[in-house]
Amino acid sequence: MPQKLFILSFLFVGLGGSLSLAQAADDHPADPLEAAILLEEFKQSTFLHNILCRNVIAYKRREVNEDYFHSLIFSEGGSYSKAAKAVEKAKQNYIAPLFRIDTSQGIIRETSHPLHLAISGKGFFRILKPTGVFIYTRVGSFHRGKDGNVVLKIDKEVFPLDPPITIPEEAVAIEVSEEGKVIVRMADQPELDEVGQIQLAYFINTDGLRSLENNLFEETEESGPEQQGDPGDLALGLGSVLSGYLESSNINIKDELRKHDASVEVLQQLKDRAKKRGMNTLRQ
Asked: In terms of domains, do 60 and 130 share one?
């Protein structure tokens, strides 16, 4: 699967023929059974998204925050129309409370590329968007860019590592220590030169990070402000950096399929109950 992660704009399409939140959002009081159906559809699409992204570097599993989902459905003075719009807005913008991000570490696999970096433990790489905004990732497939800077390329976008590190054109070998020191060997020079220090970002509440497409994250009020430190700093609880390795996703495919199948059964039971009640939220 390509590196680009597509945010699910229509999370309920194709799941049993039910209406989406926007389609079902006529102005009536929120019904618990109706909300349960929408929740199961939402959960199924999230499970499928996780399954599709299982081979993406450092992908982190998403799950629906059911408490927050229900708080939106049954808020807005009981108006289902207003509540549905609130959920739809949160979904489309991947607002952090609607999704929980499982930040547990994936399996680390060897690649032998010196600028392929895996974080063994807590922390994120900080990279710079073209707009000048910092974002964060566990994807470590870095390389030397045209200007010599260490960069991460995702699709057609190039994100410089921050703090910036420049690899001289004359360098014939690159080493990165577990503490994040970047060392190069120049042609015809026996000694090594240190050209930079990788730092890792960390947050008090990683569950509060906003998930962007392409396995990138953004700071939010819920995550708390970013803090930085050197890899391997035990006082800060930061992990070490492993050169020549990449972190895999943390998706357990068997577990994800089991959860999806269980949700399918629950959804069918809910639809059967709705049919007996004559609810009009299902397509016939």
From this structure: no
pTM of the entire predicted model? 0.81
Helix (H), strand (E), coil (C) string for the chain: CCCCCCCCCCCCCCCCCECCHHHHCCCCECCHHHHHHHHHHHHHHHHHHHHHCCCCCCCCCEEECHHHHHHHHCCHHHEHHHHHHHHHHHHHCCCHHHEEECCCCCCEEECCCCCEEEEECECEEEEECCCCCEEEECCCEEEECCCCEEEEEECCEEEEEECCCECCCCEEEEEECCCCEEEEEECCCCCEEEEEECCEEECCCHHHCEEEHHHEEECCCCCCCCEEECCCCCCCCECEEEECEEECCCCCHHHHHHHHHHHHHHHHHHHHHHHHHCCCCECC
Which range scores top for mean pLDDT: 7-11, 72-76, 151-155, 189-193?
A: 151-155
Checking if the pLDDT of 45 tops 50, the result is yes
Whether 212 and 239 map to the same domain: the answer is yes
Q: Looking at the domain assignment, is residue 76 inside a domain?
A: yes
Q: What is the pLDDT of residue 90?
A: 64
> Are both 92 and 31 inside the same structural domain?
yes
10 inside domain: no
pLDDT for residue 96: 58
Query: What is the span of the domain harbouring residue 42?
Result: 21-103+250-277
Instruction: Report pLDDT digits (tens) over 98-124.
Output: 788 888 999 999 999 999 999 999 999
Do 83 and 147 sit in the same domain of this protein? no
